[in-house]
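Below is how a single chain appears once it has passed through the pipeline. First comes the sequence as given, then the structure the pipeline wrote out for it. We keep one example in the README because the format questions we get most often are answered faster by looking than by reading.
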Amino acid sequence: MDTKTIKCNKCNNNAIIFQKYSGMHLCRKHFIEDVERKIKLTIRKHYSVKRNEIIAVGLSGGKDSSTTLHILHQIFGKRPDIELVGISIDEGIEGYRPDTIESAKELTEKLGIRHIVRSFKEEYDTTMDEIAPQQREKGACSYCGVLRKSLLNKIALEVGATKLAIGHNLDDEAQTLLLNHLKGDVSRMVRLAPPKELEGLVLRMKPLRHIPEKEVALYAYLHDLPLGFGGCPYAHEAMRREIRVMLNDFEVRHPGTKYALLSGFDKISGILGREFPQEGLSQCRICGQACTEDVCQACKLLKRNQ
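Resulting structure:
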């Protein structure tokens, strides 16, 4: 059947998407409303935004972070007591990151939002292109993830941010959950639960955690937001890639698998939190960032303690 002839389940307009997990055909208007409703509900439920807050947004320039900034600007942009700040990290990946940072600059200029760009080279005196060829214990993604997360938190603290929004979508969350299950890493799983205040760490918020990746891409396309489809050249090293393929296969054969994973986790996260309470934070003796040990993971990976 020609999909153009299929009508939206909520009106008589042509459908642009079929949500297999919900059984709904949706037109442009009702698809956008569905995405925005889920995001607003997630923010209300998990990340209550109060008066006079500064919300930093980790802005890579891809579809997820661009959609996150767009939605937050739509919700809070007219409130004079809320400031949004875009933060982009240049990890030093030639042929990949410069283009997405340019997209991030264009988006922040269009929305009138302050934009901060910092690099691994400035902060750590190295780049991912320099780290990748070295003999190392962990995959390139582990280095990149730890160093980027640490730098994002540092900049968010510098600007006085009360929250740090990141563009993790439903697929990202489901993949991380399954990955931690397979590794038996319960303590890391606990940190995926709705956040709590910890001194030295800016509270993370994930407005897109209930939106499938394909729907984020469609929403970004419909709003002429950067899509950034080019893949990172080091992504092939990550176990996450295998998890992604496996989960997508399950989702095709058993629609709703990703939602079920996240929903099940949210139901038991409180119990996990009580059984495996997060340790109090101290300061890294080398860089001063908040961490659970004497030396933070970023400094360990960079061998700053030696």
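The longest strand covers residues 83-90.

See the next section for the split statistics.
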